[in-house]
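User: Could you go from structure to sequence for me? I need the amino acid at each position, not a summary. Structure tokens:
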């Protein structure tokens, strides 16, 4: 499927009143995963930006967020981003990775920032990019496991460079870049809906 075809399908789905009203989700969190080929990262990012503008032009109130930018905001707020950049050449990679992991920890840092960024001021839809840019210090499955049903009052779509597969025995797996598997996600509250298979 081309990026244009994907954009058209997503526009039709994401702008539909039933999707925005989260009908048919039962008790699951209204999180959706849209996969794409990792090699198409730049085209996918342009497509998502264009899609967001198109949806906004129809009157839909949405937020477009990037996980990498959220992590940078967290580092800036704690006044360590400049130090990290300054010391990067001389620091051990493991030290940098540990710092990034600490300040992007979903439960204590990223999820609270994400929820604040999403807001509750009439937002109908949130689009999230950047899972590939925050690897390996932050993995998408940890975000899914940290989000609670009560946190979200509208659909959230995460654009993921890789594969998202349902396990026949229950649960699901994210494979970043198509090769790096996440642990099995088995709790139904944390399973995101695969937009490749979503039908209105």
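Assistant: Here is the amino acid at each position, in order:
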């Amino acid at each position: 499927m081309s990026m244009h075809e994907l954009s058209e399908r997503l526009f039709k789905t994401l702008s539909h009143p039933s999707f925005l009203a989260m009908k048919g989700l039962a008790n699951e969190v209204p999180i959706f995963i849209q996969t794409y080929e990792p090699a198409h990262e730049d085209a996918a990012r342009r497509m998502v930006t264009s899609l967001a503008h198109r949806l906004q032009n129809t009157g839909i109130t949405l937020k477009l967020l990037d996980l990498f930018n959220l992590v940078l905001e967290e580092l800036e707020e704690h006044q360590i981003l400049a130090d990290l950049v300054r010391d990067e050449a001389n620091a051990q990679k493991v030290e940098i990775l540990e710092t990034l992991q600490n300040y992007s920890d979903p439960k204590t840092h990223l999820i609270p920032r994400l929820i604040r960024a999403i807001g509750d001021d009439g937002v109908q839809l949130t689009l999230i990019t950047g899972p590939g840019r925050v690897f390996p210090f932050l993995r998408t499955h940890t975000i899914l496991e940290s989000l609670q049903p009560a946190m979200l009052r509208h659909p959230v779509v995460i654009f993921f460079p890789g594969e998202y597969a349902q396990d026949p025995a229950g649960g699901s797996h994210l494979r970043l870049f198509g090769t790096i598997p996440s642990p099995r996600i088995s709790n139904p509250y944390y399973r995101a809906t695969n937009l490749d298979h979503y039908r209105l």
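One structural detail worth keeping in mind: DSSP finds eight helices and seven strands in the chain.
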